[in-house]
Amino acid sequence: MAGAATAFGDGAMSNSIADFKKADLLFVIGSNTTECHPIIGRYVRQAVRAGTAKLIVADPRTIKLAGKAVIHLRQKPGSDVALLNAMMNVILTEDLYDKQFVAERTEGFEEMSATVKNYTPEMAEEITGVTPLRIGCWKAWKSIFPKAWFATAGRCLRSGRGMRHLSRRCGRRRPTWKRWRLI
Questions:
Q1: Which of 39, 51, 49 lies closest to 151, judged by CA?
Q2: Rounded CA gap, 55 and 45, in Å?
Q3: Could you say which DSSP state residue 75 is in?
Q4: Separation of alpha carbons 84 and 48, rounded Å
């Protein structure tokens, strides 16, 4: 897990399972969680079944969790980073991020902001196949569910470009989804 080791200093899971129980919105991308991480998958399914969390899945495949999701974003294979960049564009444009958290706990925010500025939902639709309306819906979900949790694994870590993909995702995830500090 070179990507995770480079981004977090360790190749293992970088958060606790207890974080799943605190989240009110779970966003899963690049992970067939029920197949590859059955214990985590069980926690996700339990939270959704109990009504304590909603689920958004971004995966070109119809994985088991997609059937439990309120939204299944079926992006084109290989377009995860473009989808995340477009979502980040919406979050920055609509000022939906925690500025204090960014100032205290992130690096390279200005460079990341400049990169995602070009990834409008309309431009990303050409790459991902996901409509701007579905990309922009993240804004509404994020405002309704402030304790969002973002899961990424499997495909992004094991692909030939896994380290680059994870490094890109981590840079965008920290300021937005408050991964290390749930409210």
A1: 39
A2: 9
A3: P
A4: 23
Helix 162-177 vs helix 109-116: crossing angle, to nearest 10: 100
Q: Which CATH superfamily is domain 2-7+15-177 in?
A: Dimethylsulfoxide Reductase, domain 2 (3.40.228.10)
Domain ranges of the chain: 2-7+15-177
List the structure tokens of 2: 């070179």
The three-state secondary structure class of 56 is strand
For residue 17, give both structure tokens. Answer: 């399972």
For 39-74, what is each residue's pLDDT tens digit?
888 888 998 999 988 898 999 999 999 999 998 999
Angle at 30 between CA 92 and CA 49, to 5 degrees: 90
- Contact, 173 vs 179, CB < 8 A? yes
Task: Please choose, from the candidates 77, 44, 34, the residue with its C-alpha nearest in 3D space to the C-alpha of residue 59.
Answer: 77
Instruction: Write out pLDDT tens, residues 96-109.
Output: 888 898 888 888 88
Q: Flag whether pLDDT at 78 surpasses 50.
A: yes
pLDDT tens figures, 119-159: 999 999 999 999 998 888 766 776 677 676 665 554 444 44
Other residues' Cβ atoms within 10 Å of the Cβ of residue 53:
22
pLDDT of residue 59: 92
Q: How far apart are CA 61 and CA 71, in angstroms?
A: 13
